[in-house]
Design brief:
Shape: globular
Strand order of the largest sheet: 9-8-7-10-11
Radius of gyration: 23 Å
CATH topology of the largest domain: Rossmann fold
Largest sheet: 5 strands, parallel
Order of helices and strands: EHEEHHEEEHEHEHEHEHEEEH
CATH architecture of the largest domain: 3-Layer(aba) Sandwich
CATH class of the largest domain: Alpha Beta
CATH superfamily of the largest domain: HUPs
Helix content: 25-40%
Number of helices: 9
Strand content: 15-25%
Number of domains: 2
Amino acid sequence: MIYRMKKYEIIPDKLDLFNEFFKEYLLPNQMKHGSTLVGRWVDLANTKVTAIWQYESMEQYEEIERKIRLTELHEQAKKRKKEIDPLFVDSTQEFWKMTGAYHMKENGIMKPIISKEPNIPNFTERKIQDLTDIVFGEKREVKNCDALFVFSGTHPGHWEKAIEAFRKGFCGKIIVTGGKSLTGTPHADWPDESAKEADVIVSHLAEAGIPKDKIVYENRSTNSLENVLYAKESFDFSGIHKLMYICKSHAAGRQERTLRKHLGEWVEYVPFPFDAEYQGIKVNRYTWSETETGRKRVWGEFLRILTYGERGDIIPL
C-alpha cells in the first residue's frame, strides 16, 4: 500500500467553496476510478487542507490519474476552477508507506483491531440466516479451477485442504500466502511460533508429493489483505478465470470479498474451506449459532466485513 498526501494552502473565506468543488468534481472522479479516500482535514485556522488517498501501488495511482485526465468531469473541473480562482494559494504532494501494522498489546500479545470474540447482540432467526449468508458466503459447487489460493494461517486445514484439492485434480497451481500474523494465536499443532506460515504450509505440500513447480508462495504478509497484495507480486493472475480458495469456513465471506476487490469481479471464485475448532467447539455454517463461541466468532467476522469494507480493503456489503 502507498498513501498520497495532498496538502493545500487555502484562502479561509473560500473553504466552503473549496469543499463543494472537492465533493462535486474531485471526489467522484477519484472514487469512480479506484482511489480510496482515507480522510480529509482542515486546520483550526481554516488555512490548510490535507487529503490522504490510498493505493495498492504507484502504478495503480498513475493509471488512475491517466484515466481521470481523459474524463469529461475532469474537463468540467478545470473549467469550474478557472471561474472561481484563486481557489487555493499553493499545493504540495507526497507519497508515504506504512512502517508496519500496530495494535494494542495484552499480556504481551498483539490485539486485533476487532476482537476475535466481541460482545454479541441477541440474534433472531432472520438475523442468524443473514449472518450465515454474509459471513460463510455463498454455497457453490466444487469444480476444477485454474489455480488454488491458500490464505495464511496455522491451522492444519490450510495444507490438508490444499493437498486434497490437488489430489482430486481441482487445480494445477497452488498459491500459498503468509508470513507471521501480528494478532493471531498459533494452532496447538503449529511446530514453531517463529516459523513463517507459508514456509510451513509449503513444506507440508512438498511432503505430500506435490511438485515444487506447481507451488508459488509469498511469506511476507501479516494479514489477509496483504496475502492478496503480495501474492500479486509473485504470481500473474491475468490468465485466471476460476480461482479456488482455502480458509476457515467462517472467514470465507470476508476472504472472497478481499479477492474480488483486488483480483477482479470477473473471476469466478470457488470456496474450499474447512471448519475450525476453538476449545473443542467447531464453528460451521449449520451449527454456529448454537454455541456462545460460534456466535462470537461469526459476529466478529461480520464486524470485520463492515469495517474493512468501509475502509476500502474489501468489497463492502
